[in-house]
Amino acid sequence: MFKSTNLDQFVFPWKEDNYRYSNDLKKLNEDESRYFIEITPEYEMQIKEKRRLLDEQPEVRYQSMPHTMDMQWELVELILEQATERYPQHFTVKKDGANWTFTNHILHEEEKFVFGDASSIRMEPLDLIGRHFHNDFILMVHRDNDLFLEVGQVSFAALFSANWNKGMSFEEIHGPVPFVTRTGVPLVERVLKFLLSLEPGKPWTRVNWNLMADRYDVNYETMHIWEPQRERVTVENAGELVHLRVEEQKFYRLPRANAILFSLNTMFLPLEDLKLRPEWLIRTYNNLSDIPPEMAAYKGIDVFLNQSVEYLKHEVEKLQVTQGK
Ligand code: HEM
User: Fold this and answer.
1) Could you give the percent of the chain with pLDDT greater than 90?
2) Which of 33, 56, 94, 259 could cross-link 141 (Cys pair, CB 3.0–4.6 Å)?
């Protein structure tokens, strides 16, 4: 599996030693709000894997409603604007009226299309341009005082797929989540109300985490494969097989589409690499030692959580010995 090698880019998920669900959205500051696209040292591996997953099960990982072409073009424009502004050495767009040429200088690839004309390209606009960036992209369309999932390109999913979730409302999507606060207050309605009030140009972010047993994605369609794979985790191999999976989520209002873009930057760190940042090792141990059973079962980690915690406990003990504690 590829893993995050630049730890300065890895978004460590916990600020405290004990995790519970909350309305943990944060406003992005002006600088941060300009980008949901990021290039990492693993870029080429990420893209190779993303494309492999999309090609392996195209109908599971990419889905759209037929009326979403205009919103897809709006998103393509935003992605390309951000990519060329942030990484002009890697990405360029030449525009001759509606004739656009997008060049990816890392992969030495070129995409030519007539902007706004889906017949000028071999795939749907988001499916094509999304394959140049490792993020997953979802559009939640705002209507009837609710949000509905109408477009999705989702490769590195945790309990998620474009196919499974297409057409669902925000509340339906979050139905399986035991989404309550520390004191048992339900969160779905509150979070939806907040997202409906999101304004263009003022994006928000949050971080989600999970553990993966030697996999990039788990979705309901491939449950028969990953469920038995989780049984392979032991205290001895947990450091290598189990990865801390972090999603940096960003939420942008697309003004023309009146939709919320849900963009995910998914990172993977094998538990053994937590040693590189001892404070992360200790904090991960503390958090994982204290996951309520219903949360562990929902996240699909209950089968290998104990082995992972035991592995981390040994590592924390070794660290304390070297630190003379
Ligand atoms: C509009 C954009 C959003 C979409 C499309 C979305 C989608 C999803 C999906 C598909 C899942 C997995 C559900 C399943 O197990 O079947 C999920 C889980 C979850 N979502 Fe969202 N979500 C969105 C926004 C939010 C926001 C704004 C919050 C919190 C403030 C949130 C909190 C959560 C939590 C806590 C989980 C459980 C994750 C875990 O424990 O690993 N979501 N979401």
Assistant:
1) 98
2) 259
